[in-house]
Amino acid sequence: IYGGINDMFSYVNIDSAVSNVQKMVDIVNAKGSKAVVVLGYNANIISQDWIKDKILEQRCKDKYTEYQNKLKNIKNATIIPVIHLKSSDLYDGLHPNQSGFIKIFNVIKNY
Prior knowledge:
Layout: H1 14-30, E1 36-38, H2 54-71, E2 78-80, H3 98-108
Parallel strand pairs: 1-2
């Protein structure tokens, strides 16, 4: 389960998003599988041209970091820490490109 960033750039409440991840973990475990939660990547590299207000952009980064910190408390799942990417690993300043996904894969495969 990937702790994605899209919810953090919308009006989704952080606690609701964390609760939804916990529900997914509970479903995975109930089906007899092993739940794994990936905290995502380092928020400091996010850069969105469509956000003209840099204060708003910083708030989104801070919200994503807070979300990642709260995901660390998910119960009954393996937690994969924040994966450190470079800005060149994002194709649009927000979503990973091929090199970003390869780096994410290389971390996840070790769990």
